[in-house]
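Course assignment 3, question 2. Fill in each field.
Student: A.L.
Task: Predict the tertiary structure for the chain below.
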Amino acid sequence: MLSEKEKLNKLTNLGIELNQIRDLDILMERVLKDARIFVNADAGSIYIRDNDTLLFTYTQNVTLQKRLPIGEKLIYSTFTLPIDTASIAGYAATTGKPLNISNVYEIDPSAPYQFSRQFDESSGYETKSMIAVPLKTARGDILGILQIINAQNDGHNVIPFTDADESLMQHFASIAAVALERAQMTRSILLRMIRMSEMRDPKETGAHVNRVGGYALELYEQWAHNHGISKHELEMERDSLRMAAMLHDVGKIAISDLILKKPGRFNDDEYQIMKQHTFLGARLFLDSQSDFDEAAYDVALNHHERWDGKGYPGHIDVETGAPLEGSATPEGGALGKKGEEIPIYGRIVALADVYDALSSARVYKEAWDESEVLSTIAKESGRQFDPELVEIFFSRLNILRAIQERYKG
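Answer field:
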C-alpha cells in the first residue's frame, strides 16, 4: 500500500509517465494498474465512450488472476452499456460525477442506478466497494469511465473506499484523461493511414490491423520472457511494436490499383510488383527519429520473410530495392533473410498476419476452419515461421481467440 507521500510523488510524475505511452490499449492497461495501486484496489475496469454507449474495454482482477496458471491472462468478453442512469458506469457518464459505493449489493432500491450481478455470478467473484470516475477532457467531454473495485486494507480484507480515495481518483482521472485523449488521437491517425490503404486494398481494415497488433503483442511478451528481456525494456518495446504491427502493409498505398484490386491470381510480373510493398513501406521510416520508427521499419520490411530463407524482399538496399552486394540470386532477385537474420518483430508479425489472414473472410475467399488454420501453422513451423514463436502461439491460443473476438469485423 502506498503512503500518502508516495501517492503525492507519484501523482506529480504521473502525467509525464503516461504521456510516454502512445498506444491506446497499452495506455489503458497502465492507467488501470496505476489507479488500483493508488487506492489499493483488487480490481477495476475501463469503459471508453463510443457515441451514446460505453464500450467495456479493459479489466484487471488480482483475485481472479491468482486462480489462473502462471503466465495465463484473464479472458473477458467485450460489451456495451447505454449512457443512461440505469447502470453505475452509465450514471457516472451521464452526470459527469463520480460514484463512491460502499457495497454494491446494498444500493438503495430508489437509486436510479443498480449493480448488475451477472459478472459476479458467472465468475464466482464478489464485488463490494466501487468507485466510478468519469474520464473528462479539458473541455469537459466524457472519454469514458474508470471503475475501481474492492478497496483492501493491509490484511487484504475488502473495505469501503474513503472520501480521500474518491478525491484522489478524481485527480488521477483528470491526468489520465489527457494521456488517453492523446493516445486516441494517435490511434485515429494510424487508422486513417490504414483507411487510405483500405481504399486501395479492401483487405486492410481497421479490425484486421488491430487484431494483428494484438496478436503481435501477446507473442512478443512471451518471447521477451523466454529471452530474459527486462521488465523496463519490455514496457518500452510493447508500445512501439503494437503500433508498428498495425502498419505492416502501409507500403501497399504505393502499389497500383490494377494489381491490388485484381480479382484473380497475380502473374509473375504482378507478383514481383506486389512484393515491393515491403520496402516501399519501410522507406517511410528511413529517417528514424524514435523507437517506433525503427520498429515500423523492421515490420514493414520483414513481415514476408520466411524462417527457411524463401521469403521476400531479402537482403536489399531499401532505397533502391536492389540486392545488396553478394546477395543476388541467379534470377536477379535477392537472397531471402533466414532464421534469426530476420528481426524478431518481422518474425512475429509474419505469424500474426498469416493467422489473421487465414482466419478471416476476404472478397476472394471464405475464412478457413480453425482446425485448418492451426494445422497449417503447425506444419509451417521451421519453414515459414520461427519454431519458438509457433510454440508460443499455441500456448497463448485462448488469448489470441479473445483478441479475435474483441476486434470483429
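Instructor remarks: The beta strands are 41-50, 53-61, 80-82, 99-101, 130-136, 142-152, 158-159. DSSP finds 16 helices and seven strands in the chain.
Grade: pending
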